[in-house]
Prior knowledge:
This protein is mainly alpha-helical. It has helices at residues 2-13, 30-37, 76-80, 87-95, 97-100, 114-125. Helix 4 (87-95) packs across helix 6. The protein is globular and about 35 Å long. The chain starts with a helix and ends in a 10-residue tail after the last helix. Mean pLDDT is 85; it is low at 1-21.
Amino acid sequence: MKKIILAGVLSMLMPFAAYANGHDDLEGDAEAGAAVFKKCASCHAVGPDAKNKVGPILNGVFGREAGTLEGYKYSKAMLAADTTWDEETLSEFLADPRKALKGTKMSFRGLKKEDDLENVIAYLAQFDEEGNMAE
């Protein structure tokens, strides 16, 4: 009985943000993902005031079809990609963008640590299309 209670308490102490916006199956730590996202922030933005940079805004990226954000000029490869962004597709792409999508204009070499991938994906999952974070 004590183990069951302890498991329940521990589950409540886990970072809530990683489970935001209906993505309760994500394993990453969104708070740690905010630190990982600093590697992305020179090219991408999130949040209510986000603007396209070298890369597109990543608000509401979960469930978005690749190459469809209005106002951003995508590579031909991204426009032709038959991809919907979810945990699996983001993980594959962010691990090695040029290998995952030949012809992408994303020059980032990729996140090599599994924890970094999981954490940054949990971080991105928090943002809805308007850039608001789930509470």
